[in-house]
Amino acid sequence: NDDEITSINNWLEKNSENNIPSSEYKFLAGLAKDKNVIAIQFESLENILINQSYYNQEITPNINSILKSSIYFNNIYDQVREGNSSDAEYMFNTSIYPISNGSTFLRFGNNKYNSLPFILNSYGFTSIAIHGDDKEFWNRDRVYPALGFNGYIHEDNFSYKKIDGMGIADESLFLQTYDELKKLRNPYYMFVITLTSHMPFNISDDFRYLELPNTDYSCNYLQSIHYTDKVLGDFFDKLDENGMLDNTIFIIYGDHEGVHKYYDTYLPDNNGRVPFIIYIPGIDGFVVDKIGGQIDMMPTLLYLLGIDENDYNKSLMGNNLFSSSPGSVLLPSGDIIGKTENEDHLNNANLISDLIIKGNYFSINK
Ligand code: GP9
């Protein structure tokens, strides 16, 4: 109804005031203009693993090396709710909080948004999603077209079909992704969802490359992440050797916590964080320690891509992480972490996202 639409409009309007770029980061505006986008949603990747060795072995050597030419956000919180991995996909591609009850993908699979694929497509991109699992899992076969993806490649379409754990092994996923990229003309947006490091983390012996003392959950988790880091690194190197990274930004982020989400572990505390990494060819890498959440990934990316602010400023619930506003994040528990000037605004966020989703707000207000 009209009152609800007014509250949504007001909230979004107020939110857009937090997007004024800080002078420190102004040089980044449009730095990645016209580049292809490859985004990897990495299953169960926690922030504590980045740049760390356990049992004297680097767990993510390939990601660590990619960081040399990346912007690394190391204070980003996992904000997924009951939709779990699909909520991370949802936030990355819409910058709207997931529904507070149930899974947004399952309950509201046909909803429209001012999504990342729709915005990029209007700038001439082709947007494709790829995942090595059953096409209907999390309702993706309905949701991806609704989000504006021009194509969705799922396990039935794969020519590489090594299986491990829950679905097609990530090695095959990346081989398939490479083949699909070769078919696309620039610019493209390829959204890749990995799977092998899914709980309970008992990957097959062939894929265990670390020397670890036992096979408890913590060690198995490290093995699983290390495996996906390895095949991701092979993919990255192949793109590099073929000149395909020169005009591409390469994003890696964790969908939600891994071993800390499901098990008792002796690994150091992860404090609910996932890494968010943006590789941009030719830059000297640096760390941004501002507090944020998965909701902020899309506006941050749009800023780097030089997308006109008018195309998205009043349709997203997250904020550009390069803005001058103090960092803060609303967790699914309702807790807020970070500077709290924004407290009332953030406290209302879930009320607003529920209204947006239930009313399919963007189908009428576009
Ligand atoms: C399923 C995969 C895992 O295809 O993305 O989802 P999760 O169980 O982590 O939500």
Automatic annotation (TrEMBL):
Subcellular location: Cell membrane
Keyword match Metal-binding: yes
Recorded GO MF terms: metal ion binding; transferase activity
Pathway membership: Cell wall biogenesis; lipoteichoic acid biosynthesis
Residue stretches making up the Sulfatase N-terminal domain: 35-307
UniProt-annotated binding residues for substrate: 198
List of residues binding Mn(2+): 43, 255-256
Domain of life: Bacteria
Principal localisation: membrane
Record's keyword terms, sorted: Cell membrane, Manganese, Membrane, Metal-binding, Transferase, Transmembrane, Transmembrane helix
Membrane topology field: Multi-pass membrane protein
Active site: 85
GO cellular component: plasma membrane
Family per record: Belongs to the LTA synthase family.
Record-given protein name: Phosphoglycerol transferase MdoB-like AlkP superfamily enzyme
Full-sequence portion shown in this chain: 209 to 574 of 574
